[in-house]
Write a sequence for this structure.
């Protein structure tokens, strides 16, 4: 009886559908994962690029992971049928502009200066702040 049960379990495992090689880690990704969870799921990337709060991890066969504090998107390797997933982080921002990355990086303009006219005759420089530069006078002989 025990041998029969063992053979049935072994046969069931052999006939069970298995994921394609390499597909399993990519199908375990979920939006909002921490970078540590994504690293434990996929392993060490070939290339890591970071800037302006974003981080991109590049893997073999054109696969990429995009992080902005948490996992916000990825593209699977070209050889896998698994779909790529993403979330539009700019849509979640209120009052998003057409060029959100460019406009978010530009600081707001300073307020305009009041329109006042300065009279040079009224400007007084204290004697302690005056600077005298040496000059030479050339005379003709």
């Amino acid at each position: 009886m025990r041998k029969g049960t063992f053979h049935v379990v072994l046969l069931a495992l052999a006939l069970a559908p298995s994921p394609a090689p390499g597909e399993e880690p990519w199908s375990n990704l979920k939006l909002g994962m921490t970078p540590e969870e994504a690293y434990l799921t996929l392993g060490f990337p070939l290339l890591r690029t970071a800037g302006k709060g974003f981080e991109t991890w590049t893997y073999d066969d054109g696969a990429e992971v995009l992080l902005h504090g948490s996992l916000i998107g990825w593209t699977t390797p070209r050889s896998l049928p698994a779909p790529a997933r993403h979330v539009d982080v700019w849509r979640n921002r209120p009052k998003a502009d057409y060029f959100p990355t460019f406009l978010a990086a530009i600081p707001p303009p300073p307020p305009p200066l009041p329109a006042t006219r300065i009279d040079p005759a009224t400007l007084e420089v204290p004697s302690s702040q005056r600077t005298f530069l040496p000059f030479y006078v050339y005379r003709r002989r």
Notes: Confidence is low (pLDDT under 50) at residues 9-20.
